[in-house]
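User: Fold this; tokens only.

Assistant: Input:
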Amino acid sequence: MRNKNPELLATCAALALLTVGLALVACGGKKTEGEGAKAPEAAPVVVATPPPAEPVAYTVVDATTGWGQLGVNRSIKGNTLVIGGKAYGSGLGTHAPARVNISFPATFKTLTGFCGLDDEDGPDGSVVFVILDKEKVLFKSPIVRGGAPAIPFSVSVEGLSALTLVVEDGGDGMGYDHGDWVDLKLN
């Protein structure tokens, strides 16, 4: 059966040529005689998929950040928490200088977790993480730079019911200082 609509035929022919052209462009624009066209290998795409957030035993009482608002189970920009290429499902996203006061039942013995600069702003940030019992330093990290893996910590909280999590500027200004406290667990 013959199509009597020449405009439809012209449109179909144009679409067919466009499809072939796009396929050649996607395959590097060349096809050698006797070879099938091969698509170039694409760079792998890494998608950070965090584990699901677990319930936490602490409560955020108040927080101040150098920029933005505290991220709960999110970075300061509202993204997945990612430190050194690893995604985390739970934690607190801050921007230096930051202070986060948390409270919890006085029945626990230790607080464990990790801290580091969120990958969302690249390698330019630098911070120091500090955990305080009032003004007593329980933990202080060295200067942490963007792209570095998360630093583990474990502090005794026996007899305590509150702590302050501090993110200090690393000495070079507060630019890119997106500090994360992740996988916080009271045991």
